[in-house]
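Quick one:
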Amino acid sequence: MENKTPITVEATIQAPVEKVWKYWSEPAHIMNWCSASDDWHAPAATNDLRSGGKFSTTMAAKDGSFSFDFAGVYDQVKDQQYISYTMGDGRTVKITFSGEGNATKVVETFDPEEVNTRELQQGGWQAILNNFKKYTEGN
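Output:
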């Protein structure tokens, strides 16, 4: 691949870090926001949020035409501050949560894969993060 530089997406959510962390990590919430567009959904999610814990979210087209499991193992978890994990294909992701009052900045940095363009990957991850922001602020 031409560029293995990690890709970063970010959003500031108008909610305290305690709520942001809860909505980010609880499967019942994950199933409500973990999709990049309205024609996709997350019908199943499991999450053992601790170092060495595993997670899996099924991401599926609503028309049933395609689905996949987004899964991995947590490398490091600092409550309401930081998460790092390794996906099934060996790529790593780092997420920081910095809360200040009623706003929380979430920054995700991930290793790119080699199938889709960097722009497509960044757009997809940003769309999911934007969906998380919309869901968290609206509930």
